[in-house]
């Protein structure tokens, strides 16, 4: 059945665009004779002059809606110039998937134009310029931080080749003691006793183990490789510092929102900046917290047929926001006396010690709280570690009685005097 059958046309004049790095196939759909529509497909280059020519042609055609797929970053040179004078929608390629067997750039453009005419596409969230700048900075910082983690992994591999097991005695190769020892090794000091004297605090508690860990065959080749890794780590560290300073400047209009978000356990200034950059700093684009959780990919999926649930896996969602929420959830789960930590442990115990479901649940809770806080302006209200006990005291009492009876005690409870 044709997609147009029995449906009302919402946009008499519209355009669909299939964009690549070098050009864009543009299908302009306009009314023809009778109840038919004509489609004119033209190829435009991706340069600024070609984009402006496209805008003039679309204005001349009096189109009321322009639709394009979010293809990598190739949509950006087209979207923003066109959006200055035209109604432009960026849509998810998955929603506009073409019919199998008809996959070409031309057919994609025509298919987008047809779907747009009947209002069958939902616009993606494109934030304003200040938020886009903040988003560029936070994403760049995240990418550099991930690269730094990979450099530490490469450094660890080099040390494994030397037989030096520094990571067995140090909590991390990022500590000051580890760095002093590595610098000394590069400088030519190979004596385990002298290297061990550079350690501080907990590393010195088991000196024999530390001496054994620092014994190996560290050669000049290894010194060169370790120096290479350390220089690269320092360079990345400087880049992160520059980005942090720039983020602190750009986030000034959203400073109150960032301070509000940091009241949530597990949310650092860095994570708060990512949440603001990815969601826009306000919740206008998300009608409910459920919409936001679904967009971020931190709620169970729905795949049910004939009464049987096939899968509840979370959708991919916004990977940048999801990654930041994962860091926040992990931090919150390790806290001692917070509601989020208690909730994490309850879900983890219920799911057979599988922590993934528990982490996703905490991510969902944090994001829902962020939506409500940025909507109402209220700070985080800590429910406390005894929240679940007060919510259902009878259940807690029965559980305690079962435990005591299991230990062989016959207990009779007497209410305390008020």
Please give a structural write-up:
With 418 residues, this protein is of the alpha/beta class. The protein folds into 3 domains: 14-117, Ribonuclease H-like superfamily/Ribonuclease H (Nucleotidyltransferase, domain 5), CATH 3.30.420.10; 130-250, Helix Hairpins (Orthogonal Bundle), CATH 1.10.287; 254-376, no CATH class. Helix content is 53%, strand content 10%. The protein has helices at 48-60, 76-83, 105-117, 129-162, 166-169, 176-187, 192-196, 207-213, 220-250, 255-261, 269-279, 289-296, 319-333, 339-350, 355-376, 387-391, 393-406; strands spanning 14-19, 23-31, 37-45, 65-69, 88-91, 303-305, 308-311. Strands 3-2-1-4-5 form a 5-stranded mixed beta sheet. A two-stranded antiparallel sheet has the order 6-7. A hairpin with a 2-residue loop joins strand 6 and strand 7 (308-311). Helix 12 (289-296) crosses helix 15 and helix 13 packs across helix 15 (355-376). The protein is flat, with a radius of gyration of 29 Å. The N and C termini lie far apart (73 Å).
List low-pLDDT spans. Answer: none
What string, H for helix and E for strand, traces the elements in order? EEEHEHEHHHHHHHHHHEEHHHHH
As a percent range, the share of strand residues is 5-15%
**How would a crystallographer describe the biggest sheet?**
5 strands, mixed
Tell me the domain tally. Answer: 3
What is the number of strand segments? 7
Instruction: Assign the structural class, choosing from mainly alpha, mainly beta, alpha/beta, alpha+beta, or little secondary structure.
Output: alpha/beta
Overall body shape? flat
Q: What do the pLDDT scores average to?
A: 88
Q: Report strand order across the widest sheet.
A: 3-2-1-4-5
Helix content: 40-55%
Output the radius of gyration. 29 Å
Q: Tally the helices: what do you get? A: 17
Span of the ends, CA to CA: 73 Å
């Amino acid at each position: 059945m044709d997609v147009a059958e029995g449906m009302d046309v919402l946009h008499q004049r519209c355009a669909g665009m299939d964009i690549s790095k070098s050009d864009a196939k543009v299908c302009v759909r306009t009314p023809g004779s009778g109840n038919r529509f004509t489609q004119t497909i033209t190829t435009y280059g991706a340069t600024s002059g070609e984009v402006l020519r496209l805008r003039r042609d679309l204005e001349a055609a009096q189109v009321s809606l322009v639709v394009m797929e979010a293809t990598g970053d190739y949509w950006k040179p087209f979207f923003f110039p066109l959006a200055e004078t035209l109604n432009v929608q960026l849509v998810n390629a998955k929603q506009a998937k073409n019919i199998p067997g008809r996959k070409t750039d031309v057919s994609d453009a025509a298919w987008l134009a047809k779907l747009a005419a009947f209002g069958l596409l939902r616009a993606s969230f494109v934030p304003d310029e200040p938020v886009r700048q903040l988003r560029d900075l936070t994403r760049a910082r995240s990418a550099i931080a991930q690269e730094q983690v990979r450099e530490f992994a490469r450094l660890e591999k080099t040390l494994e080749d030397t037989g030096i097991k520094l990571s067995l005695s140090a909590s991390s190769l990022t500590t000051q003691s580890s760095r002093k020892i590595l610098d000394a090794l590069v400088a030519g000091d190979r004596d385990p006793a002298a290297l061990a004297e550079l350690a501080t605090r907990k590393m010195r508690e088991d000196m024999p183990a530390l001496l054994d860990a620092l014994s190996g065959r560290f050669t000049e080749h290894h010194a060169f490789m370790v120096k290479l890794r350390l220089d690269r780590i320092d360079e990345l560290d400087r880049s992160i510092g520059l980005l942090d300073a720039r983020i602190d400047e750009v986030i000034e209009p959203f400073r109150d929102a960032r301070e509000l978000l940091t009241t949530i356990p597990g949310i650092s200034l860095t994570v708060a900046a990512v949440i603001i950059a990815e969601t826009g700093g306000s919740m206008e684009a998300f009608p409910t917290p459920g919409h936001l959780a679904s967009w971020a990919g931190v709620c169970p999926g729905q795949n049910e047929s004939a009464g049987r649930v096939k899968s509840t896996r979370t959708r991919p969602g916004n990977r940048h926001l999801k990654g930041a929420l994962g860091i926040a959830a992990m931090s919150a789960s390790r806290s001692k006396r917070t509601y989020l930590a208690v909730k994490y442990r309850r879900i983890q115990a219920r799911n057979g010690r599988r922590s993934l479901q528990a982490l996703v649940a905490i991510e969902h809770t944090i994001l829902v709280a962020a939506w409500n806080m940025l909507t109402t302006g209220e700070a985080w209200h800590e429910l406390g570690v005894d929240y679940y006990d007060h919510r259902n005291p009878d259940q807690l009492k029965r559980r305690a009685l079962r435990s005591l009876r299991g230990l062989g005690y016959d207990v009779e409870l007497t209410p305390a005097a008020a």
